[in-house]
Structures are given as structure tokens and as C-alpha cells.
Amino acid sequence: MSPRDSLLARVRQAAERGRQYRVHLQPVPAEIGYLGAGGDLCQRFAAEVNAVGGQVFVVADLEAARQRLQLLLQESGAKSALCWNHDLLDRIGLTELLTSAEVLTVNQSQLAVLSMEEQRTCVLSCDVGITSCDRAIAETGTLLMCSRPGQERVASLLPPVHIAVVESRQIVPDLIDGIRWLNDQGLEQLPSNVTLITGPSKTGDIELQLTTGVHGPGKWWVIVVR
């Protein structure tokens, strides 16, 4: 048997073995309906963020969020930050905060005047990504983030530290509510990319050793403004 035929034979055998373990879904009972996350959504979201390896800071107002962000920047030792353009970040005075902390602000308008190679170098050198989100999922501690001009996904994926600032009104009980929100925007308004972020970047090698921060941020901090 040729090497090619031997390989195909092994593939067929593996596929046959796999068919023996198909998942058989049971019908969902009619009396079971939508549950979602009840109670205090901020508290539930915070608990889930912490449970998946992130760290959440629930603050009372925008001034407290600004102070917490300043402390996190100091803790990270950041010299540059890749930032979203977002109303919530404007309201906490992000640009002024970064200037006073001597952290270089990198955003869409600054990147637009650079060549592609210069943009790549600049983005890859950023120490922190600072974003908000479109919706936060209380049940799983997940951020739902739509990519748009000025709110690019790289801010939450490339820097070693990702800091997200979220208001309580952005928190929904369940992923179903997040998908419903997307649907309500209309198909013509859907972005080219929707990212669901649950915890810092994680990967497991063939020895099943879990490692964080290999393919994305190793630290994931979320500030929740009540």
C-alpha cells in the first residue's frame, strides 16, 4: 500500500470511529423557556468576569471610573494605549487622562495618516488596549464587540493588556439578548466582524497545560460604571 493510500485508510478508519460517538440531541421540553440572568446584572456580570480569569472593578460613577483607569495604567506601566473612539470613553476624559499620565494615545485618526507598515509597527508596540463594548452578557461575563471605523477589533486583541469600560445600561442578561440587539440593528447595519470576548486569551498545548496571553491579552480588566 502506498503512503497516500495508507493515509487515506487511516482517515477513513478515524471517521468511522467518530461516527460511533455522534451527539444525539433530545428535544427541549415545551415548558422550558428563556431564563437569562436575573437579579443584579452588574453583580452577576462582575462575578462571571472574575470566574473566567478577568478582573472587574465596579464603580459608582464616571469620576470613579476615571480614577480606577488611572490606577490600572500605573499598574500596567503602559507607555502607549490603542484606544477606541467611544462616547463613554469621551465622558470619562480618556484623552486628558492619558496625557496627564504621559501615556501616548493611539487612535484611528492618528493611524490614518500613516502608511500600512507604520500603522502595523505602531499598533504592535502598544502596551494597552482601551475599549468599551456594544453589549455585555451578564450570564457568561462576555463582551460583545462590533468592529467599526474607530472601534477596531485590534484594540482588544493585540495589546498584552485589555481594559474595557462598561456602563450598566450596556449589560444584558443573556447571549440571546445580545443577538436580539444585533438583530434589532437591521441586517444593513451589521458590522463585518462581531467578537465575543470571555476572559483573557487562553490556549492549551498537547499536554493540556493552560497558558494565558499567548494569542492575545494576558490581562483583561473590566471597569463597570453603575
Protein topology:
Blueprint: H1 3-19, H2 41-51, E1 55-59, H3 62-76, E2 80-83, H4 87-91, H5 94-100, E3 104-106, H6 108-112, H7 116-124, E4 128-131, E5 135-137, E6 142-146, H8 154-157, E7 161-167, E8 171-172, H9 175-184, E9 194-197, E10 202-204, E11 210-212, E12 219-225
Parallel strand pairs: 1-12, 2-3, 2-4, 4-7, 5-8, 7-12
Antiparallel strand pairs: 5-6, 6-9, 10-11
Textual characterization of the structure:
The protein is an alpha/beta fold and 226 residues long. It has a single domain, classed as NagB/RpiA/CoA transferase-like (Rossmann fold, 3-Layer(aba) Sandwich). 37% of the residues lie in helices and 22% in strands. The chain has helices at 3-19, 41-51, 62-76, 87-91, 94-100, 108-112, 116-124, 154-157, 175-184, and strands spanning 55-59, 80-83, 104-106, 128-131, 135-137, 142-146, 161-167, 171-172, 194-197, 202-204, 210-212, 219-225. It has a six-stranded parallel β-sheet with strand order 1-12-7-4-2-3, with helices on both faces. A four-stranded mixed β-sheet has the order 8-5-6-9. It starts with a helix and ends with a strand. The model has no long low-confidence stretch (mean pLDDT 89).
